[in-house]
Amino acid sequence: xxxxxxxxxxxxxxxxxxxxxxxxxxxxxxxxxxxxxxxxxxxxxxxxxxxxxxxxxxxxxxxxxxxxxxxxxxxxxxxxxxxxxxxxxxxxxxxxxxxxxxxxxxxxxxxxxxxxxxxxxxxxxxxxxxxxxxxxxxxxxxxxxxxxxxxxxxxxxxxxxxxxxxxxxxxxxxxxxxxxxxxxxxxxxxxxxxxxxxxxxxxxxxxxxxxxxxxxxxxxxxxxxxxxxxxxxxxxxxxxxxxxxxxxx
Length: 249
Ligand SMILES: NC(=O)c1ccc[n+]([C@@H]2O[C@H](COP(=O)([O-])OP(=O)(O)OC[C@H]3O[C@@H](n4cnc5c(N)ncnc54)[C@H](O)[C@@H]3O)[C@@H](O)[C@H]2O)c1
Known about the structure:
This protein is α/β, with parallel strands linked by helices. The chain has one domain: Rossmann fold (3-Layer(aba) Sandwich), CATH 3.40.50. The chain has 8 helices and 9 strands. The strands form 2 sheets. A 7-stranded parallel beta sheet has the order 3-2-1-4-5-6-9, with helices on both faces. Helix 2 links the parallel strand 2 and strand 3. The two termini are 30 Å apart. The site of nicotinamide-adenine-dinucleotide has 33 residues, from helix 1, helix 4 and helix 6.
């Protein structure tokens, strides 16, 4: 499949995990991929994978919660490639805190990156997506749909992403822009291997959100994200697709 030939896709969180897998897939399908992440090393690896396979990719270091950096990244993308067809918004962080001892700055950082950062990207690319009748794929989570113990900040951020994406879908439908979410669950990535648990974490509670068939690699997300970003999903907007091995079924 070459669904992204002559199309430009900006992927955030492209330096690792699901964002990287999506960037590699879109590059393999002919897209020019503008990769954004806070990790320069992660970006270098992703861009190298795409270009080694014959694809087109550029990396730009950017903190998605910083408006000036996001504006600069979107401007650089459009200056380099001339247009923008899709935004794949995968940058995110996960922190666990006991809610009855939640540090306000921990809450604020999770909201700033996962929710505000996702909004800033959407806002900045929308004029370009209107021009190409393009689309947005945001990263929500199963944590937006079911309780994540000690994950109040993360769950709130992902519930916000889900609701915001539906709003954008309705607001921009007449202007030809689609907006959808993926809700991953139990995907092996930097996020899931580097977890710092609160002291005395009750792991029985975590079992409720573990997938029936075991964790999967980030590549299982790539085809779903590429489908939603592409014209295969021309009549899908405001939707959220759970990719969780049936955990919440
Ligand atoms: N892995 C899972 O099981 C799972 C489940 C539900 C939702 N998600 C969501 O999927 C998305 C991708 O996560 P992943 O599992 O691939 O994790 P990951 O940690 O492998 O990738 C996240 C990437 O985002 C980048 N990032 C973090 N903060 C950033 C910032 N401020 N600005 C720019 N980039 C930043 C990181 O450097 C990293 O490369 C996230 O939004 C995450 O919340 C993942």
